[in-house]
Automatic annotation (TrEMBL):
Annotated SUPFAM superfamilies: P-loop containing nucleoside triphosphate hydrolases, TPR-like
Record-annotated DUF4062 domain positions: 20-101
InterPro entries from the UniProt entry: DUF4062 (IPR025139), HTH_77 (IPR058852), P-loop_NTPase (IPR027417), TPR-like_helical_dom_sf (IPR011990)
Taxonomic placement: Bacteria, Bacillati, Actinomycetota, Actinomycetes, Micromonosporales
A Pfam family this chain is assigned to: HTH_77
Domain Winged helix-turn-helix as annotated: residue spans: 438-511
Protein name: ATPase
Amino acid sequence: MGRTEEWSGSVIRTPDQRLRVFVSSTLGELAPERAAVAQAIEALRLTPVMFETGARPHPPREVYRAYLAQSDIFVGLYWQQYGWIGTGMDISGLEDEFALAGPLPRLVYVKDPAPEREPRLADLVDRIGAAAPVSFRLFRDVAELSQLVRDDLASLLSRRFAAGGSAAPEPSTRGPQPLPVGRTSLVGREQAIAEVTGLLARPDVRLVTLTGPGGVGKTRLAIAAAGRCQEELAGRVAFVPLAAATEPEQVMNGIARQVGADLGGTAEPVTAVAGQLGDEQWLLVLDNLEQVVGAAADVGELLVRCPGVTILATSRTVLELRAEREYPVPPLSLPAGASLAEIADTPAVALFVDRARAVRYDFALTQRNAGAVAELCRRLEGLPLAIELAAARTRLLDPAALLDRLTTSLDSLGTGALDLPERQRTLRATVEWSVDLLDDQERSLLEATAVFVDGWTIAAAGDVAGLNEDETLDLTDALVRHSLILLDHTELGIRCRMLETVRTFIAERLAASPDADGIRRRHADHFQALARQADRPLRGARQLEWVDRLQAEAGNIAAAVRWYLAHDPTPLPHLFRVLWPFWSQRDHLNEARAFVDQLLPTADTLAPHPRAELLWTAAVTAREIGDDRAALAARDRLEPLLPDLDEPYLHAASLLAMAWTSTMVGDLDGALREALAALAEFRTQQDEFLGTASAALTAGSLETTTGRYEEALHHLRDAHDIGVRLDNAWLAATSLVLLGTLALVRGRPDEARALLDEALDLSLSAYSTQLVTLCLATFAQLAAVEGSPARAALLLGAADGLRRRAGLRVYPSLRRPEEALAGRLREALGAGGFDGAFAEGAGLTRPQAVAAAHERDAPPS
C-alpha cells in the first residue's frame, strides 16, 4: 500500500518530515551517477530511496515495488543498458519501475552521448520523451547531472509540495519568506554570482544594485547570489517582488510583508520595518525597483536605522544613493572560436542547448547545427531572455530555419513560458516596459538614436536629435541609468550603443515618428561632414588615427551612403573619393563596389570634377577586387578628363590610377612612366604622404619586375620610411614585402625571409586581407627558392583561398609572377601533388596560414 493510501484524512508525518525520492537506474554502468544523485537529494534534506541500501533477503522485484509504494518522487537515470528482465516478465525492472511510478512526479535524466544504447532502451527513452507529464533532461557528466537534479527537485518542491497534507506545512506569514526557486537551471553565471556575493560580503557595502536591460537575468542572478548568503545569515534573507508596485510607499509595505513586520500600529512603514529588523544581520532582495525609484529615500533611511541590513536590488536604473554600488549585469559570453568544442563551452550556447532540450528532449549540438546556434546567440547578443525565447522555438524549427526567420523579425521568437512575468513573455513587451518608464524627452532621444548603426558618440546623438551638448549629456545619462543605452569606453573615447534586440523595436517607434525623415537626413549629413573632415588627415600624417575613427563608424557611414543613394546622390562622388583609403585598408571594398555601381550610370550627367572623382573610385575599386574589364572601362572614361582637372591631388591620383590599370594590358613601361609622373606631382603637394608612398610603392614594384633594381630599392625604402614615420602598418608592411620580393630576385633569400617575417606580422595589425595574401604569396616564392615546393604550393593556395573568401584577386602587376610560380611548382610536384597541397592551403584559416608562412620546415599536415 502506498503512503497516500494509508490514510484519507490529514497525513501524520514522521518527525523528520522528509520526502522520499526513488532512484531508478541500472546499477553497474551508472554507479557514479547514482551516488551523485543521492548526494543531491540529501543536500535538499530529502531521503534517497535506492535498491542497494537494504532489503537484501527479499526478491528484487518485491523490493523495488515496495520501495516505490513508499516514495513521493521518482527519478530515472538512463544511459545505454535496458537492464535485467526477471523471470516471467516481458519488460526489464527498469521499465517496470517507470510504469509503476505513474502517479508520482517523474524526473528523467538521460546520459548523452550513448553510441551503444540497446534498442529496447532507445525505444523506452523515445516513449518517455513523448510522455506527459514527465520532466525529461539530457546530461553529459556527473557534475551536470547533480546540478540538474538539485534544480529540478527544488523547483518541483516549490510548485507541488508548497501546501497540502502531503508536504511540509506552509510557512508562517510572520518572519522571512523563502527565496523563490528557479524554474530552470542558471547557466553561465558562476563568475557573476561570485562577484555579487563578494560585494555583499564586504562590510563597507550596504546596497548593491544589479542593473541591465530587460531580459538580461538580473532577478535570477540576485536570487542565486542571495541563496549563497542564506546559511551565513541563518535564513534572514527576504525576497521582495516589486514588479506590480506603482507607488513608492508600496516598497516598504512589500518589505514589511516579507519580513513579518506589523503595519497596523504605525503610520510610518519604514519605522515598522526597522523595528522588525532591529540590529540583526539581514539581506533584503528588492526585485524590479525601477518603476518605484521614488522609494530611494525610504531605502536610504532603512539602511541608516538598521546597520545590519544589506540590500540587493534589481533595477533597470540606479537609485542614486551614496551607499549604492552598481553592478551592471552583462549578457552571456558569446562564441569566439569556430570548433564544436569551443562553441559548446560558451555560456550563451550552453543556455540555448539547455532550454532547447526542455522542449525537445533529443536536441543536441552537432557539427551540422553548431554554426547556426552560435550565430543565433550572436544575433541575440547573449541576452538570456532572447536566447530562451529562441530555444523554445526549436520545438518547431531547427536552428538554421530559426536563424533565417530571425533575420526578418525578432517577433519570430514568439512568447515564452506561461510562468514568465507578462512583461517578459516577449522581447517586445520587455522593451516596451522599459520605454514606458521614460519621460517624453528621454523617449524622443532614444527613438532618434535608433537610426545609428553599431553605436554613436554623444556629439553625434546631439547633432542628429537637434539638442545642445548639455541636453544630450543629461538625457543620455538618464537613458544609461534606465539600462536602455550602454556605454563602451574605447581608445577613441566613450561610445553609446543599444543592444540590437532593443534597437530593432525602438526603430519601429522611430519609423512612426513625425520627425523620422528629418532624423535620417541629419544622420546622413553628420557622417558626410565627418568624412569630409577626414579627407586631408586620411592622406597625411594622421591617417592611422582617422582610419580607426572611421572604422568605429563604418556602419553609420554605410547607412549614410545608402540614404544619399536613395534621396540625394549629389555629395557621393566626393564622399567616395574621400572614403576610398579607409575602404581599401579595412576590407570594405566589396561594399564600396556595390555603392559605386549604383551611382556609376549617372556619371555622364555629372560635372567634370565629380565625374572624375566617381570614375577614379570606380577604376581603383575594380582594380582592387580584380575586375579588369570594369577597371579599364572606368579608366577609358577618366583619361579624357585629366587635362582639365585643376585639383592637384585628384590629378596626381588619377595618374596613379592610370599606372595601376596599364599593368592590366601588359604595358609595364607605360605604367612606370605614369607612376613616376604621379610621384613627382604628389611630392609637390604638402602633407600628401599617402599618395607619395603609394606612387613610390607602385614605381618600386614595377622597377623590380622590369629589372631596375637600384631604382626599385630607392623608391621602396622611401615608402617604408614614410610608413615608419607615420606609424602606418599598411604602408610599412607593403614596402617590406616588396623589398622582400626585391631581395629574392637579387638572390638574397635570408634577407628576404627577415623582411617577410616582419611584413607578415605588420600586415596582421593593418587589418588588410589583400596585404596578408601578398605576404603569403611572396613567402611561397621564398619557399620555392629554398627548395620546398610542397610548402610553396601550400602557401600559394592559402593566399588564393583567403583572397577568394574576401572577394579579392591578386594585383595585376603580380599575376604573371604568381602564374609562373604555379607552373614551376606543378612541374616539380606533378599535377596531383601540386593540386593537393594547393587545396590544403586554400582551406587554411588566416592564423593557420600565418603560422605556416613563419615555419622554416614543411608544416604538419
